[in-house]
Design goal:
- This protein is of the alpha/beta class and 206 residues long.
- The protein is built from eight helices and nine strands.
- It has helices spanning 17-27, 57-65, 84-91, 103-112, 126-135, 141-155, 170-185, 188-198; strands at 6-10, 31-33, 37-38, 53-54, 69-75, 78-83, 96-100, 117-122, 163-166.
- It has a five-stranded parallel beta sheet with strand order 2-7-1-8-9, sandwiched between helices.
- It binds guanosine-5'-monophosphate.
- Guanosine-5'-monophosphate (5GP) binds next to strand 5, strand 6 and helix 4.
Length: 206
């Protein structure tokens, strides 16, 4: 069976990427959202196994050592990772998978999954970035400055991404993400095998 396509969505925290990722799973057929493992504390309103799989550092380190992660990274002092199993079981069903991960994880995925598609969600300007970051998890100003610095570092890596969505409005961003997914699905590399099968052509190039 034809494998699904792997999409990575990155962007500074507060860019709305988690909301967007969860929306698109409902609006586009055959896309699933990968649930990451993390050592960070569960926030109010989050559910274990739905938002993340919350585990302790010892278990996370064991999973690193036993090569269970397709990618993992330390973000804001916590560990986050996506397992190979989580990705493969979806792709093997012919369903696309969307990973909401940081730039370090995105690079690891790029080297492991040659056909993966990388999308960066970016706030429209510095002022909006600061506003969005200060809304989230930022109790003091030095923490906010740290997150600003980190966000700028992340934005400086957009060259490693295939598509950029400027996130001024959630509905517009959702439409852009939907159209990226629909366009990528039309790429020759992803539909070629189906066409060859349909016309009984043996694929000598693969
Ligand atoms: P939060 O704790 O606010 O949900 O996420 C913090 C950051 O960690 C976000 O940038 C998010 O994209 C990133 N993140 C979430 N899951 C993963 C993961 O599995 N791997 C990596 N590398 N980053 C992740």
């Amino acid at each position: 069976m034809k494998k699904g396509i792997l999409y990575v969505l990155s962007g500074p925290s507060g860019s709305g990427k988690t909301t967007l990722a969860k929306h698109v799973v409902n609006t586009v057929n055959y896309v699933d959202f990968a649930i990451s493992y993390t050592t960070r504390k569960i926030r109010d309103g989050e559910k274990d196994g739905i938002d993340y799989k919350f585990i302790d550092e010892e278990k996370f380190r064991f999973m690193i050592d036993s090569n269970q992660f397709a990618e993992w990274a330390e973000v804001h002092g916590n560990l986050y990772g996506t397992t190979i199993d989580e990705i493969e079981k979806v792709l093997d069903k012919g369903i696309d998978i969307l990973l909401d991960i940081d730039v370090q994880g995105s690079l690891q995925i790029k080297t492991k999954y040659r056909n993966s598609v990388h999308i960066f969600l970016i706030p429209p300007d510095l002022i909006t970035l600061r506003k969005r970051l200060s809304k989230r998890n930022t109790e003091n100003s030095s923490e906010l400055e740290k997150r600003m610095e980190m966000a700028i570092k992340e934005i400086s890596r957009i060259n490693d991404y295939d598509y950029i969505i400027v996130s001024d409005d959630i509905d517009k961003s959702l439409r852009k993400l939907e159209s990226i997914i629909e366009t990528v699905r039309l790429k020759t590399e992803f539909i070629m095998d189906d066409i060859f099968k349909l016309y009984n052509i043996s694929n000598n190039n693969s």
